[in-house]
Design a protein that fits this description.
- The chain contains 3 helices and no strands.
- It is mainly alpha-helical.
- It has 2 domains: 70 residues; 69 residues.
- The protein is elongated, with a radius of gyration of 31 Å.
């Protein structure tokens, strides 16, 4: 029968068990965070759209009931269309920058992780050198 980690009382085994549990739970939570954030963004967009539609509807009703001429000159219509098109282009560029920044951050984290392993390997080699210098030779 194998001993459980808590039965062995090995510091490193207990620490490893805690670390594994911590990161396993973190990995499971990432999905929940992603869905919650995505749902919030969708709800915010939906709410904002409803606010704008409700206000436009109220303004349109007010104009109709008050007899206000709400026709827009063609030049003004074109200006609004151009502003909207430019805004959409700006948002597209912003989104591309954000995605590129996220991708760069992801690559940086991966590089950091890869280098952490290389650094540990280097430290392991240094440790082995020190141990071999400090350990008396075995007698035949």
């Amino acid at each position: 029968m194998s001993k459980t980690i808590t039965e062995t009382k090995d510091n490193f085994a207990i620490y490893q068990q805690s670390v594994d549990k911590y990161f396993t739970q973190g990995e499971q939570e990432i999905s929940r965070y992603f869905h919650a954030l995505n749902d919030l963004q969708e709800e915010y967009l939906h709410a904002w759209r409803n606010v704008v539609k409700a206000n436009l509807s109220l303004q349109k009703e007010f104009a109709a009931k008050s007899g206000f001429d709400s026709r827009m000159p063609e030049a003004t219509q074109k200006m609004f269309q151009n502003i909207t098109d430019e805004f959409l282009k700006t948002r597209s560029v912003r989104d591309q920058i954000v995605i590129a920044t996220i991708d760069a951050a992801k690559k940086n984290v991966k590089t950091f992780s890869d280098n952490a392993n290389a650094f540990a390997d280097l430290n392991r080699d240094i440790m082995q050198s020190w141990i071999s210098l400090c350990t008396p030779p075995k007698k035949p």
